[in-house]
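Example 3.2
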Amino acid sequence: MNKLTMTCGLFLASISMAAQNVMDVNTKKMGAPIQSTMYGIFFEDINFAADGGLYGELLKNRSFEFPQSLMGWQTFGKVEVKNDGPFERCPHYVLLSSPGHQERRTGLVNEGYFGIGIKKGEPYRFSVWAKAPKGQATIRVQLIDENSMDEKQEFVEQTLNITSADWKKYTVQLNSPKDDKQAKLRIFLKGEQPVALEHISLFPVNTYKNRENGMRRDLAQALEDLHPGIFRFPGGCIVEGTDLATRYQWKNSIGPVENRPLNQNRWEHTFDYRYYPDYFQSYGLGFFEFFQLSEDIGAEPLPILNVGMACQYQNWEKESAHVGQDDLQPYIDDCLDLIEFANGPADSKWGKIRAEMGHPAPFNMKYIGVGNEQWGEFYYERLKPFVAAIRAKYPNIKIVGTSGPVPEDVPDATYRFADGWKAMTAQKADLVDEHYYRDEQWFLTHGLRYDTYNRKGPKVFAGEYACHGKGKKWNHYEAAILEAAFMTGFERNADIVHMTTPAPLFAHVDGWQWRPDQIWYDQTQMFKTVSYYVQQLYATNAGTHVLSLTMNKQPVANQAGQNGLFASAAFDSKTGEVIVKVANTSKQQQPIQLNLSDIKGNRTAQTLTLSHDGMDDENSICKPELIIPQKSTIEVKGDKKQATLTDQLAPMSFRIYRIKK
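Structure, written as tokens:
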């Protein structure tokens, strides 16, 4: 070999090595533990997430408590609305009487939420509280297709005899012979004897865990499949309400479901361009159900309670909209009573209610949040007595405060991010809830966000975040990949970042107000977005300890010379595997080389990959698996000192490697 050939060879080798994007992973030294709460979910009743979504009830306004008592219902014949029913906080009901002629009909029809979704072969439980003023009466209960070309509109019918002049609950099962997304429920009065009907309900028998007041099975299962470590509920802005009268009140959401009062949902009217005048909260999905669901899916519950403040966005400079400093005790009591409801013995005041609802054992709640997206001295001063009271009575409960609605200081704004952190640190909050909905450029340039945080104060809870594409706020592929890239910073900084929950969680395809969202659905079907799969990939490949991963001795977070790459590494002590996550946010294919110290010999690594060509593409009801993770393997070469993995990452892609150590 001559000198020229040798020189050219060395030159080409150096170019190859430089282009290889070499990353060094120290698999020998364990870093910070990764909390089991690191990746979780956040539920807020927006986009018809509860009634019409996760909550299994199929009928709208089942207790006639909407301000317009018959909203959601069509009536015919002689139907009267009464308000002296058997349930104190839900007093309304309907009285059906004879229309006066045998050829006329009396009854009512419920439209459900954008239609009642019925599946072929599935059983449905119809229930009603009823009384017959004259001792007995009969109704016909039907599922109908008003647009059917068949001879009959009804495709299921059952007759129900009401046998008492006193209020009693009656139940009958309807078995569907067909699929129908736009079905309706119809009730006919049969005969001439009047009947009073209250809390008219229709549930799938096959709810999640087959509970009578249960969750829609496919949507709840999608939550379980995420393997979340933390479950934040019930909001969000509904914790505050447009005003304090419409704030979420957990005590109204427990006890017998028939006696839970209606609450106005602040998202009914917030966006006039996506306006839904029939959007209310039945509280059928209440705090007991939230705790139970947390337990079912293996997540720690994180309830958020009101701090005595209405939504600051909607009440600028209105101190009268909030509770005075001297009048906070009922709100403080709500926090203390909730902890007793969740954790107290079955013979305590609030623990007894939990036990009567079917859960004698405590839920073992460990966290509580006080306030949502609040900011300024107005919030900081109100929070102090809450912290003092909780610390005094329940010193082991971890308190989550908030740094406000944005992730950095905003010039000329009424809130400052830095002030929020300063106040939470001074009050010794355990975690600080940060929120950020930002565009692509923000996610690309903030990969090192948490590397410089103070390690001595509260821990980070990224309680709401999502990449809102600039000019295209939907669930497109590009935004999900940028979220995946940014999340490597969560993992790398697991010593300070203890919880994360993207937002929002659910959206009805016909009733949404906010996007992007994790899970979309109609009356009978659902699909998981690419962002959902990103979360699932992280949660199911979290590992137990951080490992050092560097490129030229620097963290890999799209810094200069890193070619749009983001990366992090972890060790899973349960499986003995090294887990490396790499996102390529560049528009070119990127070669990478992983040098894995302290791994000897050849082996095969498992891979999971998100890769797709169309940046604006997304999954849908029609194409629910257009973009999903793909499994594969790749060979790892090793000697006596270390193993080396070389690969080519497609443009705008995310890949996870699992390597047995």
